[in-house]
Every structure is written in C-alpha cells, then in structure tokens.
Specification:
With about 500 residues, the protein is of the alpha/beta class. The protein has helices at about 10-20, 25-35, 60, 65-75, 85-105, 110-125, 185-200, 220-225, 250-270, 275-290, 300-310, 320-330, 355-375, 410-420, 460-465, 475; strands at about 5, 55, 150-155, 160-165, 175-180, 205-210, 230-235, 350, 395-400, 425-430, 450, 485, 495-500. The protein has three domains: about 5-125, Orthogonal Bundle (Arc Repressor Mutant); about 150-240 and about 340-500, P-loop containing nucleotide triphosphate hydrolases (Rossmann fold, 3-Layer(aba) Sandwich), CATH 3.40.50; about 250-330, no CATH class. The longest helix has 25 residues, at about 85-105. The termini are far apart.
Length: about 500
C-alpha cells in the first residue's frame, strides 16, 4: 500500500472536525485508525466503499509507528496481511474509526473541544471501548482449529459409557433446559457442566448466573475457584453495570430504553394500569434529560418520579412504591464510574436470594435488558474453520426460572429467540416442563437440549415437545436419584443418563 483514498463522506466529516478543533485532517485520520484498532474485531472488508475523498500516503498515516500499527492490524485480522490487501484493510479501519468519532461528536452536540476532552479522558482512564457506544469490546476471536464445545452429561445408568453432547452443533441451538423437582440435582448438573467448560472448552467462555433461591451457587467455592467467577452478593454489593446505559443519546434510543424499562416494571408490578405505564415513560425520559453523567442511575429515576408526582399532585401508587425500592437497596454501579462492564469477558455469579422477590426479578430483567441491547449490536459470532460451529461468547444461566417465565417480560423472550447467532447461550433451570409453556410464548421450542429429572407433569405434550416421542409420566416421576431423561441433538430417541451419584 503506497496510498489510499477515504470516502467522500469521511472527507466531509474530517473537514468539519478540522474547522471545529483546528487540528489537521491527517491527524484525525490517524486517530480514527487507532480507534478502530482499539476494538478486538476486524471491520467489514466486504463493504463497497467509494474512493472520492482524501488521499493518504503510507508514511502520512503510519509515521514512525508502522511496526506497532501493522502488528495490531494483523492481530485484528487473525491472519497475515498481504501488501495488495493492506490498502483495503486500512481504509476499512479508518472508515469505522471515523464513524465512531462522528457518533461521539454528535452526542456531544458537535462541540470539538468536548470531543477532544472526551478522547483524552478515554486515554487516561485506559478504557478499551468503542467511542459512542456503551458496549464493551468484543471478546477476541479464539485462534483455535474448532469452536466446537463438547460436554459430558454423565453415563448410561447400567454401564460406564459416557454420554456427551455438542453445545454448539450445526443446526442446534446452544440453549439448555434443566428440569426437576427440588432436590433432584438440576442446579448441581448445571454447575458441573459449567465447571467442565473451564477444563474442556477449547477457548474461554464466560458465564453469568443469577442465583435465585438460596445462594448455594455463589457459595460453591469449587465452582468459583475453578472458573475464576466474580461473585456479587445483593444487597450489600453492586452489579458492575449501569442498567440504563445506551449506545448514543438520541430521541429514538432514549425512547426505546424508556419502553424497555416500562415493560420490565410492568412485568413485575401487578396491576400497573395504562396511566401508570404512561407515567413510567415520562419518568425515564426526564431521568435521561437530568442525568449528570449522561446515563441516569436508578436514583435519578426515583428523583424524576418524585418530582413528577409532586408537580402533578399525583398520590403515591404501586409504580412509585416499586421505584422507591431501588433506593432502599442500591443494586447497580453508579454511571459516575463509567458505563462499561466485563460480562462478555469474565464469569459472574449474582446472588440475589437476599432481596425481596420483586427486586430479584427486576434485577435480573434490568441486567438482561442492558445485555440484550448490547449483544444485538454485535456482529454475528464467527464460525470456525470448517464452518460448522459458531463461537460461544457467553452463557446466561437463570436458576429457578419458573419464577421468571410467567412474567411476560419481552426481553427474556427476545433474548432466548434472537441471541443464538450472536454466540450467546441461555440455560434455564426450572421445576417442570410445564413451566416452559406460557400463554404468550412457548420457551420449549428454542431449547437445543432438555435434561429432565424426576418431576410432576401436568402437560405430557410439553415433555413430548422437548424430548420428542411419548414419555411415560409415571416413569418420569419415578426416576432414580441423579438420573435424567434427555434426547441428544440429532437423535430420534430419548436416553436415560446418570448425571450424578449420591
């Protein structure tokens, strides 16, 4: 690459930046290249870009830093960089970096001085994040031959033959349902599978567990030590995430965030009427307008609600009472300390069993709201070299899922339906197959693997939907200790598996 030309749109924007800041265009081009390289992924190299903009020489762009920049370019591409492709690769990085700069410039009301201060702050704090985005950096693409993740469920009850399954096999969803009455070992089984991930997966896969009932998962020292998971105990500690962070502050993004929050509150607070739902939207919009750090905290939401109720003379109701609970138990990190998080990079166990029941659900739903909005902004998870197995970026485990499934919370439904291509797996631990059949949505249809321990069954068709074929409910209720019924992906028949021994 001796030289390359930017697009016309990039030239126009960089000229605007030069007028706003007094800094020459070629310096902004280098800044854009650096911003794009701060992400762990390579830009889209198949995008058709015009060459009607500014011309840059290799020396002008790389200067004395060519060795470092070329190393980063190779690392992001995960393959050697041939010189005849270098111009296209560099141009794609510059275009992506300029888009990141432009989003931040617009968010800061087109203030060049504010943009420079923001960029300086990013450098001094060492945050490796996308400018103009609340999303953390993508987890790196593993440099391995295969992304296949094979786990051992157990053995056949009358032999030592191991029964394994492929979590991310071709044509199969990575979602797992583990069902059984209390004491049958569904949580124990899920914990064992997660521990296996640390030992057997060909690359690191972080998980997020919501520990609902007793805090026994968070107290499992072996799991925490084996996986290196961070334990967050509520109340008393805070989830390291700002739940209301958004990608950029526009009317549309604020409106979508307000609707997500309203739907989450409405899924938990019973009897929330149309007036209260409308008030909730207004409260969130006011909270964004008044937020000191650009992103409102839950305390900001409560303050906005108190002012709105007082100004309009509205009596306290169930909506206000629910919002006030957030101030009784600080649950999330303040936006003052940043909006990025580590959930795509590090395993977490969130112990919520000490919270009131409504706050347990709200904590989970608010976290899922934030993660869903970010995950859906990510490119699809890559396939491995043979094109059969998609990278698993994260596993979300919801213990005692029967408390959440009936809530009609839209994000929970969408996250199960839509995140498969993004490399996110959802594992639901519940008491019975009946729990998955909800009036609005049948969660069973999305499960790639069902593991059913002894349980009471009222809807035999639900078990058939999960496992295929007819299952004798009496046999299901009489399964021995540690034995479950499952049907492996690609198989037409069920099999009994000794998942654990007493």
């Amino acid at each position: 690459m001796d030289r390359f030309k930017t697009t016309a749109a990039t030239k126009e924007f960089l000229e605007r930046l030069t007028r706003a800041t007094g800094i020459r265009r070629n310096y902004w081009t280098r800044a854009a290249l650096g911003l794009s390289l701060s992400l762990d992924s390579s830009p889209n190299l198949d995008e058709d870009l015009d060459s009607d903009g500014m011309e840059h020489t290799r020396q002008m762009l790389f200067g004395d830093d060519e060795a470092v920049l070329m190393s980063l370019i190779r690392q992001r591409l995960h393959e050697p960089v041939l010189d005849d492709r270098l111009g296209k690769i560099v141009k794609s990085h510059v275009e992506r970096g300029v888009q990141m700069l432009q989003k931040e410039y617009e968010r800061l009301n087109r203030r060049g001085d504010e943009l420079m201060l923001y960029l300086l702050d990013q450098c001094t704090t060492g945050l490796r994040v996308g400018i103009g985005s609340s999303t953390t950096v993508l987890p790196p693409i593993p440099v391995v031959q295969t992304f296949a993740v094979s786990l051992v469920l157990g053995t056949r009850p009358k032999s030592s033959e191991e029964i394994s399954f492929l979590l991310n096999g071709p044509g199969s969803a990575p979602h797992v349902a583990v069902m059984g009455r209390n004491g049958t070992g569904k949580t124990r089984t899920a914990v064992e599978l997660l521990s296996q991930l640390q030992k057997k997966a060909p690359y690191p896969i972080p998980f997020l567990i919501f520990d609902y009932a007793k805090g026994d998962i968070a107290a499992n020292a072996s799991l925490v030590e084996t996986t290196g998971a961070k334990v967050v105990r509520l109340p008393g500690q805070e989830i390291d995430l700002a739940p209301l962070a958004i990608k950029e502050r526009t009317e549309d993004t604020i409106g979508l965030a307000a609707h997500r929050f309203r739907d989450t509150i409405g899924a938990v607070v019973r009897g929330l009427g149309p007036k209260q739902k409308s008030r909730c939207l207004g409260i969130i919009r006011d909270a964004y307008q008044q937020a000191r750090f650009g992103t409102p905290d839950l305390q900001d939401v409560v303050d906005a609600a108190e002012h709105l109720y007082a100004d309009n003379g509205w009596p306290a109701d169930s909506l206000l009472a629910c919002l006030r609970e957030f101030t009784d138990f600080p649950l999330f990190r303040s936006a003052e300390n940043g909006t990025q998080h580590e959930f795509l990079h590090k395993s977490h166990i969130v112990d919520i069993h000490g919270l009131p029941e409504d706050l347990r659900k709200l904590t989970v739903f608010l976290t899922l709201d934030r993660l869903y909005s970010e995950v859906m902004e990510l490119p699809d998870a890559p396939l491995d070299n043979n094109g059969k197995h998609r990278q698993v970026r994260m596993i979300i485990v919801i213990d005692e899922a029967h408390h959440y499934l009936p809530c009609k919370q839209p994000t929970l439904e969408k996250i199960v339906r839509e995140v498969r291509s993004k490399g996110v797996a959802v594992w639901l631990l519940s008491q019975s197959p009946d729990d998955f059949d909800q009036p609005r949505y049948n969660f069973a249809r999305e499960m790639g693997l069902a593991i059913v321990f002894s349980c009471v069954l009222e809807k035999p068709k639900m078990l058939e939907a999960l496992l295929g074929g007819k299952i004798n409910p009496q046999r299901l209720s009489q399964l021995p200790t540690g034995v479950a019924i499952t049907r492996l992906p690609g198989s037409d028949s069920t099999v009994e598996v000794q998942a654990w021994h007493a």
